[in-house]
Amino acid sequence: MNTNHIRQVVIVGGTHGNERIGLYLVKKFNQDSSLLFRPNLTTNCLIGNPQACKENQRYIETDLNRCFIKADLDNHLLGRHEEKQAKVLHEQLGPKGNSENFLLDLHSTTANMGLTLILVNDHPFNLHLAAYLTHHNPQVRVYRWTQENQENAFVSSLCQLGFAIEVGPIPQGILLASLFKETETLIHQTLDYLEQVNRGASPPLPKTLTLFQHLEVVDYPKTSNGELAGMIHPQLQGRDYQPLNPGDPIFLTFEDQTLFYEGCSTVWPIFINEAAYYEKGIAMCLTHKQDISLK
Ligand SMILES: [Zn+2]
């Protein structure tokens, strides 16, 4: 793949129909294509799941952002709404793993994630761009959601280049002007970098990048019937990206009993109390904070 010249940038909003910031940014950009114009860059915007956006629902039948496993994309027996929509997007933006596009997938979260880039691979191009963005925008954090021997199923996994942008906290189904504008700025900073690459320039970069590497997901306490038995502990609520040490409070049961983190080392939880993850059995994702040096 030629990383000295980005063929096309694709910005996807509304992959989840109740995440309105990405949807309305894409609508805005599509109304006036001059907004994203860079002389050496071609940028297109599209809505990931138009039907779900119309209904202001995360999805119609299943989570679109878990439908991009290669075998599933090739399996024409899978005919639920999002499984079909994934094949449409794959046709437009793929083929998965070999696409020359740079993909930005816009999301929002009810968790206190600030501005997060979610990387789904280790491509040096993405790490360099992430370092550039954290340097120019110190609010930006970088989360790498890779798991050994496990294929990623996100929209953003269609292309080697690019990532998802996850912003929060924001309730589902609404807009917040502050996060809307911060996301828009981040998109412009990304395009500025890509424009420099296409002009043949090498934007100056910091030598290291701080990233939060995915470790594992943690479920809520449950009864033997699988019913919720507790909530995020008030001392943990909203503390995404803050260190959680062994013995720190993590959940509060409905009987007012505090449950403590029983791991053996410090972790950095994120996606704490994300509304869409209750059905997935995810109360938070644990990460390890690390500094990596850039080559
Ligand atoms: Zn989302």
Compile the SSE list and pairings:
Blueprint: E1 8-13, H1 20-31, E2 43-47, H2 50-54, H3 70-73, H4 81-93, E3 99-108, E4 114-119, H5 124-136, E5 140-144, E6 159-168, H6 177-198, E7 208-218, E8 230-232, E9 249-253, E10 258-260, E11 268-270, E12 284-293
Parallel strand pairs: 1-2, 1-3, 3-6, 4-5, 5-7
Antiparallel strand pairs: 4-6, 7-12, 8-9, 9-10, 11-12
The protein binds zinc ion (ZN).
GO molecular function, one term: aspartoacylase activity
Protein name: Probable aspartoacylase
Binding site for Zn(2+): 16, 19, 107
Describe this structure in words.
This protein is α/β, with parallel strands linked by helices and 295 residues long. The protein has 2 domains: 9-206, Aminopeptidase (3-Layer(aba) Sandwich); 215-287, N-terminal domain of TfIIb (Single Sheet), CATH 2.20.25.160. The chain contains 6 helices and 12 strands. The strands form 2 sheets. Strands 2-1-3-6-4-5-7-12-11 form a 9-stranded mixed β-sheet. Strands 8-9-10 form a 3-stranded antiparallel β-sheet, with no helix packed on it. Helix 1 (20-31) links the parallel strand 1 (8-13) and strand 2 (43-47). Helix 5 crosses helix 6 (177-198). The two termini are 18 Å apart. The model has no long low-confidence stretch (mean pLDDT 96).
